[in-house]
Predict the 3D structure of the following.
Amino acid sequence: MDPSLSASDIANSTKPLSEASSPPVMDLLSEPASQASSAPMVDLLLEPASEGSSAPMVNILSEPASEASSAPMVDLLMEPASEASSAPMVDLLMEPASEGSSAPMVDLLMEPASEASSAPMMNLLMEPASEASSAPMMNLLMEPASDDLKEPPKPDIDPLADITNDTPLSEVKTPVAAMPQEPPSDLFDDEPSELFAEPRQSNTAKQQQTSIFDEPDEDLFSEPLGEASKKPQNDFFKEALAPVAKASNVCGPLSDNYNEHPTDIFSEEAITTLPSAVSTVSVNSKTNGVHSDEEEPDIFAEATVELSLDSPRNDRKKKEAAKPSASAPAPSVSASASKPQPKTLEELEEEVEDKFELNISITNPEKVGDGMNAYMAYKVSTQTTLPMFRSKTFTVRRRFSDFLGLYEKLSDKHTLNGYIVPPPPEKSIMGMTKVKVGKEDNSSAEFVERRRAALERYLQRVVFHPSLLQDPDVREFLERDDMPRAHNTQALSGAGFLKMINRATDSLSKMTIKMNESDVWFEEKLQEVEAEDQQLRKLHIMVDSLVGHRKELSVNTGGFAKSVAMLGSSEDNTALSRALSQLAEVEDKMEQLHQEQAASDSFCFAELLADYIRLLGSVRASFDQRMKTWQRWQDAQNMLQKKRETEAKLLWANKPDKLQQAKDDITEWEAKVTQYERDFDRVSATVRKEVLRFEKEKARDFKKQIIKYLESLLQSQQQLIKYWEAFLPEAKAIA
Amino acid sequence: MMEEAREGSLSVSAQTIRVTEAVRDGDALTFIVISQKLSGSGEYHVARTHEDFQWLQQCLFSQEVVPGILGVIFPPLPAKPQLNAPAKVLKQLGFLAMGEDWRMYCMALETYLQQVAAHTTLSKNKCLENFLTSSEPPGHQRARKGIFNRLSQAMEGMRKEGHKDVDDFFQTERDNNLTLTGCSKSATERFIDVVLTEQKLAVACGHFSTALHLCVEQEEDSAVLAFSKICVKLSEVIDSIKRNFESVAENNLSTLGLGLDLESRCQEAEKEMLYRRTCKLVELETASRNAERAKPVKKAAMDELKVAAEKEFDHVSGVAKQEIARFHSTHVELLRQALILWCEKQLETARDTSFRYSQHLQAFKGLGE
């Protein structure tokens, strides 16, 4: 199995997860992942489930969700993340990855460990959360975090001991009590110690392993931690996780995160995926030692029950809390306040993007075939340090319809969730026919170059999107040598027509569906987007005319150069004649300069604007998607209302036989309403986040392009100065 | 003696003649001509219409007392400016119709007056003195006739232009003049196209810059705010580009544009002179043929005519040779001046613009995310 497939697993399992969670967090979690390695975070969150029990995590999560209860587990983990209080947590995960040092890793592990006191047999962040369905767990998550914030994220013996020993102990009592199988004291004494001790010992002193299990926490922690340097820690991870990797997915990505040779492990893991209950259990027993196999499912079962009981209120409450904080730059929760460098959501994202190690370029457009069946093939080269790819550099050949095919796939998958999927350049029958039929003439060369650049920007936008990058289709597109031909784009002009009809009906339904917008933000944004669309179109027209004039200037300058040359050649006075021929040369060069400037205008502005006009279409599509989910929710609510009325009628009519059916219906529809409402909330949050991201990207993009433009402008101006400076003495030499 | 010597010459300094502005008076334009007195520090201010200029030109043409006057290359008077004229008519004026408030036209008139005043033969004409100093406008009667004369000359020109010359010097000059006239005319036209496009670009940039301002939104949202800032900055950049085009176009107009226009009109004037001389040549040839074939009775009269024609032709040719030599040097000097001034101005503009661009670039680079 190749890595892309495992990623698709991840992506697939993410969906149910994300349904129950607030989308911003999903991104938060996936973004660092994309930066640090192949989705280690997502893995972290997801895989443990499959590890912990035979039923994959997805089930645990989605079941309660579909039972009309929210998935508190996700929320527990997620909400804090989206709130400022999450910053520490995220940082914990981020920093080790970014610094590549293992020191912060201690914190990472430590935290789970402290939480793990409630969920003893887990060594990953996720599991404690999944079990800790009740409020105390929340505290657990927060407190250790805030605790370790007080000190720098370097390995520190005392606080570590503090966290593992004191905080969890005091806080976790309740959830632990809920697990009858095991005495709480056991949990605390043994669990964390094993978690940490074993791996660390494996570095420092392997022979001690057995004794560590029996020893009290403090010793264990103080000793190895004090010694913990980067290398050993890395080793420890490799060692500790390698065996696990064989059994399940979990460790692969995890170790990726902190490993220096991630690809190895990743591929290894890829080969040996498919977690099974038996293997994971055995892993757990290996790492945790104390736990017996039977206990785990029990604990999980308990967790699920608790989840379903607790969730709805928690969930909603947290969502409300999350919303304002999402846009607020620095929400101050005690945890983040004490943090040395409190990071907001945005800053975090930025950091991630800056370190983005993926360069895509499209080169060598090449005509393949003859006549009307001819097409252009482009070389798509990728340079990356991301471990999710098989190698650091690779090249594939793709034709235009492949790009369209990629868009179709991505759009089918992600538009539903409210993502803004970057659109590819439009198919141009005119331009392509010219290329097909025409020889090597100027306009078709320009067309090809223009398209090449547009495709490059399109692809860069796709991979720049943290969620889209995770999509297996993207990876396939970049990596796979023999791409199956995309057929649905073959007759895209027809499909485009259909799409236009769809769009028309959409806008029709938009008019008929009068959405009573609860969120002013969306209302305003939509208006803004529409206004912006108009403005960009206007600008585009203007830039086009500007480019046209530039070209005209270039042509006229050329004409002038020619007539000056004529004038010079028929002039008697030799000095004047010479000067005039010089002038003709200067004007020729200026013609070139104007032409370049026209191209620069067109490439920097016209294309940029065209891109953004298309992108705004996608933005609107995501708004539409949000409205559709809203509509679905409303419909379900109406249906529920009807069902309730039916029930009332039945009650009144005293027909007990049908009453049960009606009650079932109600339950079913209640669940649906909750589900759809959550869908709506999720899509809303995604759209919101996507729009914010889009705006940021836009500002960044424009700035980048304008700087480029100004540089070219300045350069040609300086060239112009040189020309004039060279000509002045010639003019003066006329006697 | 002094008084008499002065009588023929001008009482104003040729270099100081200025046509400062064109005042619009109904459908006509009145030009303010200012010149400094040679004696003392006084200035003459007179208001002249284009008809007055035409009258002056006609006076210069018809100085029968001066021998060989037809050999003079008369400084070219710009064609009549048309107010409210359709674009097509304005286009014939070329550069002279461009620029605000007929400034280019005033400059062309100024050059014309200066050339006339600096001309050794023409400056002696009383009409010029009158034109420059008299507060009353000179009479118009002969002006119309003048136009008519030139028109009929042009008609005949088609036939006589190709006439083979007896003098190689004039034959080469005529050939050269013919090509140069064509070339300078087409160069001027091409250059007009360039300037027009530059002006169009300036306008387009202006629109673009204004439109960018509309993209600005009042919001605290950081990304939106950043974008608005970018739009404002870009608008400034585009405005700089616009101003660059404006000044480049202006420089083109006021230096090389005007120079090329004058050049092509001067070539045209030389052509006219050469043509007049050719006419005289044809006359002479006809006269000598007549004299040869004439019957003895008329022979004396014919010979007399022939001698007169010969004498006149020699005068014209003599003057023409001088004029051509003078014309060549002034034409080179004129173009030289235009080119140098043009180059300097463009260089200055280019440097200014470059400086402004680099400032914009810095500003953009410093713009926060």
Q: What stands out?
A: The radius of gyration of chain B is 27 Å. Chain B touches chain A through 59 residues (CB under 8 Å). The mean pLDDT of chain B is 82.
